[in-house]
Write a structure and sequence with these properties.
It is a single chain. By secondary structure, this protein is of the alpha+beta class. Helices cover about 35% and strands about 15% of the residues. The chain has helices at about 5-10, 15-20, 25-35, 55-65, 70-80, 85-105, 165-175, 205-215, 230-245, 255-270, 285-290, 410-415, 420-430, 435-450, 450-465, 470-480; strands at about 120-125, 130, 135-140, 140-145, 150-160, 185, 195, 200-205, 215-220, 310, 315-320, 325, 335-340, 345-350, 365-375. The relative contact order is 0.07.
């Protein structure tokens, strides 16, 4: 029988203890707890050494806004006479902080918006990549935009976060989503806000002009409060976790800025075609609905802060300060904007106006930085050899090796032998060898007898040694088949001389004794 049932039946603690099989003191304790309304199933709280000091601990926690350290507070409690250990103090401070946060915890309202209303963007540090022209590694930045209703994300890598770069990224983002929303929300940076008067942000005049150009308004969040634009903050966090090489994502280091741009384009395609857990559909499909509420974009981008207008010349260069600077292929005849950023010249092109999409182009079309060079002086053009992939000159300035292209069956049969045949053709032509077609036909016939691999290796050795005579190929093949291995050959040096000896000359020029 249970204690309460026995006590209600007998109304005597001693008799109830006999029926329940417990001590009468236990029956009285449970009866007292029931009468006081205290739970009887949990542990019984016992007095602690820290209990007299709890009001002081709560006072210190309240004064420090829940940031006081337990070890420092323990030192003050010892001065007040507390004799317990630091572990007891840490537990008491943790309970006091938990109670304080319960009454001061900030709550967040979900970002609820209608289609075509809000766009957020923010910045994050990107990975280090080689600088323009293959220079030293430099830090990059990731422009991360988030369309609130559809959850569509756009990530663009850049070198800096100056005002021209911001406007270029906004233009590329708007053209990627296919329209302009009503509002754009971002941080309080100098590129957005030039001053604050009575707590009110004073917008940058050029930002206001750019907003009018695209038919939108730029707003800034509360200072030092990134939670007010959590969508773009989450986009930055996800992009950095995937794009920055770490041991967690097993991504290799980027060899160039173009490779980083391609990785950002692939990342955007993946996150925008993946079902979002909040909406239950992909951001790309939701964007098709939201585009019906976006404002149309102007045909020309906003160029107020992009710099000076230039035309890309026939040699793929733009002129600035009487100096020619190279640009990537596919831009000849189109308009470009150049501006000076510190000691560098930045070249920006509106890729959405190109009739053909260049092979090197990655990510959304729009205003894009296509080249960045160190400033130079007149008479010293700055040319990036990577901008001319088909030029007859190697990256180091040496002549490009000819590329054999067979035009008849005999040449196709010879070059089909392998890389050794190609090397023999190039070196023999450079050496002015005569009767090359006859020797090529003989090599093909020899391959039918001794094997293609053997003849190809022998042709490579002949090209290396510069042996292009009539019987040189046959001599090399026979030596490889019947002669010694190259590792067994003895090189004539001071240790292996063909001289018989010098002892016979020891008495030369001396008179006999």
């Amino acid at each position: 029988m249970e204690i309460f049932e026995a006590l209600d039946a007998t109304e005597c603690a001693h008799s109830a203890a006999v029926l329940a099989g417990v001590d009468p003191k236990t029956v009285r304790r449970y009866a007292r707890m029931r009468d006081m309304g205290r739970p009887t199933t949990g542990p019984v709280p016992r007095p602690k050494l820290i209990d007299p000091f709890m009001p002081k601990i709560e006072e210190w926690v309240e004064r420090s806004q829940g940031t006081v350290r337990a070890d420092k507070l323990h030192e003050r409690l010892q001065l007040l006479g507390f004799a317990g250990d630091e572990r007891t103090t840490r537990r008491a401070v943790a309970r006091a902080k938990e109670r304080w946060r319960a009454g001061h915890r900030r709550t967040y309202r979900p970002w609820i918006t209608e289609p075509g209303l809000w766009l957020q963007f923010d910045w994050g540090w990107g990975p280090k990549v080689p600088g323009p022209g293959g220079g030293a590694e430099r830090e990059t930045l990731l422009f991360c935009a988030w369309l609130a209703w559809s959850r569509f994300r756009v990530v663009i890598p850049v070198w800096d976060r100056t005002l021209p770069t911001v406007i270029s990224c906004i233009d590329s983002t708007l053209r990627a989503i296919g329209g302009a929303p009503t509002y754009v929300l971002t941080d309080n940076e100098k590129t957005m806000t030039i001053d604050r008067v009575a707590g009110v942000a004073v917008r940058h005049p050029q930002v206001v002009a750019a907003g009018r150009h695209y038919g939108l308004q730029v707003h800034t969040c509360v200072p030092f409060d990134p939670e007010s634009k959590g969508g773009s903050e989450a986009t930055v966090r996800i992009a950095k976790a995937d794009l920055i090489p770490t041991t967690a994502n097993l991504r290799e280091k980027y060899e160039s800025f173009a490779e980083l741009r391609g990785a950002c384009a692939i990342f955007c395609q993946q996150v925008n075609t993946r079902v979002h857990r909040e909406t239950g559909k992909t951001p790309s499909s939701a964007l098709d609905v939201e585009r019906t509420r976006l404002h149309p974009l102007p045909d020309a981008p906003h160029t107020l802060a992009l710099g000076e207008s230039r035309q890309v010349l026939r040699d793929q260069t733009v002129r600035f300060g009487s100096v020619r600077y190279s640009t990537p292929p596919g831009l000849v005849g189109h308009e470009a904007w150049v501006r000076v950023d510190g000691e560098e010249l930045v070249v920006v092109v509106d890729l959405s106006t190109l009739p053909h999409r260049p092979e090197w182009m990655q990510g959304p079309a729009g205003l894009t930085e296509v080249a960045r060079h160190q400033l130079s002086l007149p008479g010293r053009p700055v040319i990036d050899l990577a901008h001319y992939p088909g030029h007859p000159q190697e990256m180091d300035g040496s002549p490009r090796q000819p590329r054999p292209r067979p035009v008849n069956d005999a040449e196709k049969a010879f070059l089909a032998l392998g890389p050794g045949a190609k090397s023999w053709l190039i070196e023999a032509a450079a050496a002015g060898t005569t009767r090359m077609r006859v020797k090529m036909a003989a090599a093909v016939e020899l391959a039918a007898l001794v094997g293609v691999g053997e003849v190809d290796i022998s042709l490579g050795l002949a090209a290396t040694a510069g042996r292009f005579a009539e019987d040189d190929l046959m001599s090399i093949v026979q030596h490889r088949r019947h002669g010694s291995r190259p590792a067994d050959l003895v090189v004539a040096d001071e240790a292996h001389s063909v001289q018989p000896g010098t002892s016979a000359w020891a008495g030369f020029g001396r008179k006999p004794a």
